[in-house]
Amino acid sequence: MKTLFRKLLVVGAGVLCAATPAHAEDVDVDELLCAMRDVMVSQGERDVMGTIRKGRNKVPFSLSARGETIVFQYKYEQAWQRFDVRIKESNVDLVLVNKGKAQVMAPSSYGKAIAGTDVCYEDLSMRFLYWKGGRLIEDSANARIKGRDCYIVEVKNPTPGVGQFAWVRMWVDKDNGTTWQIDGYGADGKLKKRFSISSVQQLSDGSWFFKQMRLEVRNPQDPKRTISLNYLEMDDLPESKK
Question: Using the 8-state DSSP alphabet, how is residue 113 labeled?
Answer without folding.
Answer: B
